[in-house]
Design the sequence.
């Protein structure tokens, strides 16, 4: 039984999600205390509970402590079962974080899987659909498995109501990736999504991004969505290169001006472009676990976040595989042994 402290490192839900994935992949049970101890509302929220139940479903797992507010949990996996699954969060909690939990075991399962998840698709502090579709999954495809993800309905906080469909064609093994350079730029554009929000909000966001990144008008796209999926607003900046595509996002919030939403996303893009790193900080965190499961790999990133370092600790607990992070000339090299 592997023992974990949910207060370690950044002390959020990432520790639990990575532990669930690795537990199934390695057939090792774990016990975690202090779940999400460093968050304003510690313990399991509905999003995390959905992830736990989803992990149990795909592995015929046994769970103790799976209830709202629980700060302790024990998980014992059995076999990985490919097939058709449907999970409803019931709130605007992130669909992509639930998928993040169950995808790694399904990448090398014995057969294909189809997954339906309903909840939020564009959430603060979670990978939005655009990031998943454009940045993360193309790299997974280079490792062997093919994952097709479709956005059926947008879901913003606090309404939720979004839905994604996922089709996983697994491979027997995962091929290690080595992403040391991003390559030449092949395309770049920004999108401002609005639903039941005045059009001028999106226009102001695109104006800020255009000025900060020195982009032309044809790179700035306003995406009006049906009012019944709102209210909701997000901006998405896509930077495509030969070897890597990155996506940086800002989310509209009550009391936060359009200019601040756009400025935050544009600054993240500028910070990334100011280095020679292959991947940004969020993609680095997402890549770490599947690359560790492949048995090796390496990449350069513009920042080694607390999320990445915490994830590395959890991965080493289950795999016993060292993850080395070193700084060279202002960028970070991450190597998985």
Sequence:
């Amino acid at each position: 039984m592997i023992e974990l402290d949910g207060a370690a490192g950044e002390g959020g839900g990432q520790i639990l999600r990575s532990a669930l994935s690795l537990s199934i992949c390695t057939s090792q049970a774990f016990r975690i205390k202090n779940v999400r101890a460093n968050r304003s509302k510690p313990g399991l929220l509905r999003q995390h509970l959905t992830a736990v139940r989803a992990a149990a479903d795909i592995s015929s797992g046994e769970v103790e402590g799976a209830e709202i507010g629980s700060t302790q949990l024990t998980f014992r996996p059995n076999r990985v079962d490919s097939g058709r699954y449907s999970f409803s969060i019931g709130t605007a909690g992130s669909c992509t974080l639930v998928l993040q939990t169950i995808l790694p075991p399904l990448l090398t399962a014995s057969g294909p899987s189809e997954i339906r998840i309903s909840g939020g698709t564009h959430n603060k502090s979670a990978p939005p659909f655009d990031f998943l579709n454009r940045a993360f999954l193309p790299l997974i495809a280079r490792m062997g498995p093919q994952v097709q993800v479709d956005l059926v309905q947008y879901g913003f906080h606090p309404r939720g109501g979004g839905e994604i469909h996922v089709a996983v064609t697994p491979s027997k093994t995962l091929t290690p990736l080595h992403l040391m350079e991003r390559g030449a730029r092949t395309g770049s554009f920004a999108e401002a999504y609005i639903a039941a929000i005045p059009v001028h909000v999106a226009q102001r966001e695109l104006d800020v991004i255009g000025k900060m990144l020195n982009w032309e008008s044809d790179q700035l796209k306003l995406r009006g969505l049906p009012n019944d999926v709102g209210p909701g607003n997000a901006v998405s900046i896509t930077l495509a290169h030969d070897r890597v595509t990155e996506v940086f996002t800002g989310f509209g919030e009550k009391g936060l001006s359009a200019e601040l939403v756009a400025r935050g996303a544009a600054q993240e893009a500028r910070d990334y472009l100011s280095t020679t790193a292959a991947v940004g900080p969020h993609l680095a965190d997402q890549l770490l676990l599947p690359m560790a499961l492949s048995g090796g790999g390496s990449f350069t990133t513009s920042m080694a976040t607390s999320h990445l370092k915490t994830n590395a600790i959890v991965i080493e607990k289950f795999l016993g595989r060292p993850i080395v992070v070193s700084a060279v000339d202002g960028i970070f090299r991450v190597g998985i042994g």
User: Anything to note?
Assistant: The mean pLDDT is 94. Residues 140 and 287 are 9 Å apart (CA to CA). The domain at 1-77 is CATH 3.30.110 (Translation Initiation Factor IF3).
